[in-house]
Amino acid sequence: MGRSLPCIPMGCSACCRETTMPLTKAEAAKLARRTGMAVDKFSYANDLGILTLLNDETTRACVFLLTDSAETTAEGVCSVYDARPKGCQTYPYVLSENDTAILDEGCPHKDQFPPPSDDDAATLLNLEERILSESQDG
Ligand code: SF4
Fold it and tell me: Which residue of 16, 25, 32, 115 has the fewest C-beta atoms within 10 A of its own C-beta?
């Protein structure tokens, strides 16, 4: 969202570990083009039919995270940074249960981010709507 993030200077990859990040079909197609991987090698449909990034069995991190460790605090770099899904771009802003934008409790550096704006909420709501509608289309 055009802000300078603490993630890279802090060497933090916590949000890419044991990820449940959803993605749209267009984002999956872009990642498939970018990596040459089949969509089912990096994502699966969860119980609600929502396309979700897969974790590596060994590192328990997103399959796109370059890391050799399963430690939550270990460093890691996204290998598809410029093609990463919108949900990765907007994190640690997430939607609360009543559809307002909040900073996710799971982010260890959330205090270094400004409070979410109305634009953040609109972006997240649009993304959620797209993802839910795709999951219902099958
Ligand atoms: S796509 Fe990149 S930013 Fe998103 S969870 Fe995977 S490694 Fe992290």
Answer: 115
